[in-house]
Amino acid sequence: MLMAHPAVLADLVEQYEALSLLHAEQGTPEARRRMEDVAYTLCVSTGTRDVHAALIAAKLRLPGARPEDDSLVEA
């Protein structure tokens, strides 16, 4: 499997988290579509099928991540 560059993953995580904070899923059709696009790209980039798993996988691939750090696991 090809691995996305950490800079790309960091950008995708940042975009998704910003859209989430802005409640894009409840916003305009354009905002919802953008959030869906970023979620899809995160999943493809990390080889996952769920955006929450994709966020965890992406964060674990970023510089400074520690595999034993369970603080990245979202409940």
Please give a structural write-up.
It is a single chain. The protein has helices at residues 6-21, 29-46, 51-60. The protein has 75 residues and is mainly alpha-helical. It has three helices and no strands. The longest helix is centred in the middle third of the chain and has 18 residues, at 29-46. The radius of gyration is 12 Å and the shape is elongated. The chain starts with 5 loop residues before the first helix and ends in a 15-residue tail after the last helix.
Summarize the structure.
With 75 residues, the chain is an all-alpha fold. It contains three helices and no strands.
Please tell me the overall pLDDT: 86
Strand content bin: under 5%
- Ranges with pLDDT <50 over ≥5 residues? none
Report the total helices: 3
Distance between the termini: 27 Å
The count of domains is 1
Q: What characterizes the major β-sheet?
A: none
User: In total, how many beta strands?
Assistant: 0
Kindly state the percentage of residues in helix. Answer: 55-70%
Q: Helix-strand pattern, N to C?
A: HHH
Q: Give the helix/strand class.
A: mainly alpha
In angstroms, what is the radius of gyration? 12 Å
Q: What would the principal axes of the Cα set say about the shape?
A: elongated
